Amino acid sequence: MDQLGRFIQLDAKGILEKIRLYLIKKLLPRLEDRRKYHQEFASSTSFHGVYNIVRTQSKTRKALWLLVVVGCLTIVIWQICSRFIYYFSWPTTTTVVVQYVENVKFPAVTFCNLNRFQAHAVSNLKIIFLIWNIVSAVLQKFALEEKYSQELNDFLLGNQNFSIKEFTRKNGFYLNSSTLLECDFFGKPCYPQDFEHVFTEYGNCFTFNHNDLPARRVSLSGRGLHLLFDVQQEQFTDEPALGYTDAGITFVIHSPKELPRFDGLGLLTPVGMHAQVAIRQLKSIIQEYPWGECQPDIKLQYHKIYTTNGCLQECKARYIQDWCGCLPFVLPGNGTECDLLKFYNCVYPAVCDIEIKGLCTVGTHNSTCPAPCEETDYPTTVTYSSFGGEKAIKYFSAKLKKSPEYIRQNLVRIDIKYHDLSYKITQQQKALTISELLADVGGQLGLFCGASMITIIELLEYIFTNFCWTCIFLLLKAPEMPQWNNTTQNQPTHKEKKKGIQEC
Are the C-beta atoms of residues 375 and 283 closer than 8 Å to each other? Predict the structure, then answer.
């Protein structure tokens, strides 16, 4: 066994020696050849300045050229680092383009009566106002005061089968020939059938030019939608104790593909007033993260286009359906409709919990509902005047067979038209693209060092070659392979090694 071990060790030493001889002869050039390779690289490289350092005999000139090359390299490294730092700060620029067109799409307009319910239906049921505020709390924040809690509990226990949805649909504001006295769109008459019913925090509301209709276009500025409403204050009412003290029509202008959003965005026209609304179309395009805050991969389940309001509603719907096992009828989705008890005992606390815990957030890229990548808004300019002079009051009084006081207290005229046939595009763009970054880096290299992509490849080849030579040199200088058996008992002595070699 000892002889076999010594034979294996000698055989391994022989193989290692052969490898070393092969490395020395084939892969590691002689010192003179290596020096010649360095000189040839310095004289032939396209990296300007190196040639002058190597070939110049004068030490002064060598020092000067060395300073020039080092200085240029320092500037290049500084400039390239600054460009990379700037690029990874994800900078953006904003461009504004005004595009004039022959015709432009008319937006959707949703109208609501500030007096939400018919007076005869709620004369003995004042709790309805409070119930509707609780139901619409998923759309608009509402704080329930403690003094109403007992009254509300008594009503819910005695009217468990009561449907606030059907009650509002039947006894809320309605749109017919008695409430919509005049309707004209670009010279053509329109009718209550051209409006689509929708539930909002104001109860029954009606949308003109909704998404299911063919796109309506306007080909002349200054003309658009002209309406005359009769709010019928005698028939419709609201609860002043809950803050609803105004009379008139509130409306919001939005894209036909979006849901109406009144919270902070609704325009108000009081009774006895004529509102002239000039609109513009503004398209906003936002870059995706990390340049902007949008996430283009997010899709909504129940909306054709992504909007933060639609996303927020779907988010609330998911949480409420998970917690309460039902779905409020004012939110999108498919599920069992929540009854009044569920609204009061589960949905309303769930909405408050969502608000407090921030479960449905809006805005930044890491929020539940980030900003949309594309969005269309309609900035408005509204001017008001008193509706009707003396002759106009007499005309409508005779036409409607109403007193002049009734005309002043109930009629509202609204004109909505485009300011001009154009739309503005506000686009967020990358301030520095990857191609521009490469162009900047190449320009700095070319200006200060005369370098190009070929020069970089030459340098990489030169560095790789010297790295390989260094590795081979270190391998040849490595100590001999350790013995196979590390125990001191089986290690042969110097005399035994010599004897074994002679025997071989």
Answer: yes
d(CA 226, CA 413): 8
| Three-state secondary structure call for residue 297 | coil
Q: Per residue in 127-157, pLDDT tens?
A: 777 777 777 777 766 555 555 666 677 777 7
Rounded distance between C-alpha atoms, residue 71 and residue 87, angstroms:
24
Helix, strand, coil percent content, the chain, rounded in steps of 5: 45, 25, 35
- Give 444-463 pLDDT, tens digit per residue: 888 888 877 788 888 888 88
Query: What whole-number distance in Å separates Cα of residue 34 and Cα of residue 27?
Result: 12
Residues 6+ apart with CB under 8 A from 115: 173, 231, 233, 236, 237, 238, 244, 247
Please give the Cα distance from 484 to 74 (Å, whole number).
52
Q: Which helix (H) or strand (E) holds 87?
A: helix 59-87
Q: Is 242 helix (H, G, I), strand (E, B) or coil?
A: helix
CB 485 within 8 A of CB 5: yes
DSSP-derived secondary structure letter, 397: H
Which has the closest alpha carbon to 204: 150, 167, 235?
167
Q: Which has the closest alpha carbon to 247: 131, 136, 116, 121? A: 116
Instruction: Name the one residue in this structure whose structure tokens are 């026209």.
Output: 269
- pTM greater than the 0.85 cutoff: no
- d(CA 37, CA 350) in angstroms, rounded, equals 77
The residue assigned the tokens 């092969």 is 22
Count of beta carbons in the 10 Å neighbourhood of residue 403: 11
As given in the structure block, the two tokens for residue 504 are 């071989």
One-letter amino acid at 374 equals E
